[in-house]
User: What shape does this take?
Amino acid sequence: MKKFLKIIKIPVAFATAAALLCLYFYRIPTEYTCYPDQPPAVSSLYTLEAESPAAQQQEADHYTAKVKLFGLLPIKDATVHRITQKSLVVLGTPFGVKLYTKGVIVIDAEEGSAGIAAGIQVGDIILSYNDQVVRSNEELRAQVQLCQGKKQKVTLLRNQRTQTLWVTPTETEEGYVIGLWVRDSTAGLGTLTYYDPQTNAVAGLGHSISDVDTGLTMPVESGTLVTAEVKGIRAGEKGNPGELLGTLSNQTFGKVTTNNETGLFGTTDRKFEGVRYPVGLKDEVQEGEAQILCTLSGTTPKAYTIRITKINNNLSELKNLCIQVTDERLLKETGGIVQGMSGSPILQNGKIIGAVTHVLISDPTAGYGIFIEKMLASAE
Assistant: This one.
């Protein structure tokens, strides 16, 4: 029996090892970036070898390479992108945003209402009603009142696809209604990540501004960036994320151009003063000590130490960095990472490598970050 068990254990061990090896192979990136005069940074376990030496030496913006395990065994193809080296003014300052949507977002619907009967769903974005563009609750309400009980055309966006539905409003004592509650704007506080002096671009948050009820990324029709000041802190604790408490001013310093999963982007006519740091590529990031810049009072940022505990080099994902706050000053004041710190730049080895994005609800001392490389690529 013992011999039989040994025979069983050996194949299981080989199968487990093979599965882990396959998982490792799968997680090796197929996209790399480097500066024109530098080779891409890779792991000590594998190398990149250009398909032809001439391809690597040419000034093309990309070339194909073989990923070789231990420098010997080819396991997959990869694309190496050459990018222009740049530096950014690193910020870490609070800012406010006032965002107006493209269309209106359906955040709730009355059961049995005309809107539900027409097939409209929570999360839909109504772009026009009766061929008239709607940009606010008031505009939608006005169009509904004009129907006189007749069937009307609704054009909406659902899952990034435009659809047309027909709704017949219900007559009530207050007028005609379709039984929908919609949102057309939002405002909030966050942290600026960088300012690019070459393009006058600014970026922050490291994630999108989403509708609080539906969780959908809010489509931008227009938006303004305003100055803000941190007035207080609600410290985070396990199961209850904290928050920076601040006020937004009426002083506009830029306009919003893009709101997507990697951050909020805009342009500004203000010249931000600060230290310029070179951009650190994802393949240069290392596990270990790093710093974040954030503002806990007023408008002046300070540096705090963190530790990068895990790196995910897959640019198709958003949680690229797992971070742990190690600075006793920050832990004492905030409990770790709190809402409003999203966008705080992450620095390592004299370069800006990313931005804070989320706190870990179960442990406010830990959270996630996104590569600055991913933010920059998404902004272009």
